[in-house]
């Protein structure tokens, strides 16, 4: 019986040592519902590791004391709302001290495709390292629109900062727009005749002229009717007096403006 207990004890000690030496993932600190008993488990592991072998511990004695002081300060609270507070001895944030031996669960180590681009964690270009809490890779992300055309709370068309035009419906070229009883976004020439129109019900766009996409440089004449610029005064799209549509990038039809 004694041998059996000793064997079980060795297994338990080995298991604890394995936990302490591995990259164990815990909830990020702070999180909306971080109970003191959860924090107690983290700090116990850190202190146990430190007392077992100070030479191998990533923590100093001052860091350990700062962790214990912090735990005592939040012990009576129902929830820990913030661990980004400064320790009195080290001058370090408590979260930084904890992170020396605890891998917090963040977007770049949680095993999920958070930005739904088909790539997970460190395989996603949006992750700088395993502590990065934003998996989003801004290449290909939708840009805030420079011009948003809506009807009754529904987005119908948008020109974004990169020069894309996204329309809910389809684009028809080389057709003189004819106004209907539907709500419409209309661009007119210098004589007051429609040269481009977006139906705000179906989301279809009609232009009198042609579509010119992926233009390296947009240099409209002064007579153009609609010019879309970004905050740095760079032209991203325009419709000229003949109803031609010029885009820095391209049109996305049947899209989500």
Q: Could you describe the 3D structure shown?
A:
It is elongated, with a radius of gyration of 30 Å. The chain has a 4-stranded mixed beta sheet, with no helix packed on it. It has a 4-stranded mixed beta sheet with strand order 6-9-8-7, with no helix packed on it. Helix content is 22%, strand content 21%. The protein has helices at residues 2-21, 36-52, 61-74, 94-98, and strands at 25-27, 103-105, 145-151, 154-160, 165-167, 171-172, 184-188, 194-199, 205-207, 211-212, 226-229, 235-239, 245-247, 251-252. With 257 residues, it is an alpha/beta fold. α2 (36-52) runs antiparallel to α3.
What would you call the structural class?
alpha/beta
Radius of gyration: 30 Å
**β-strand amount:** 15-25%
Order the strands across the largest sheet as they lie in space: 3-4-5-14
- What integer is the average pLDDT? 81
The end-to-end distance, rounded to whole angstroms, is: 72 Å
Along the chain, the helix and strand elements come as HEHHHEEEEEEEEEEEEE
Uncertain stretches of 5 or more adjacent residues: 10-24
Helix content: 10-25%
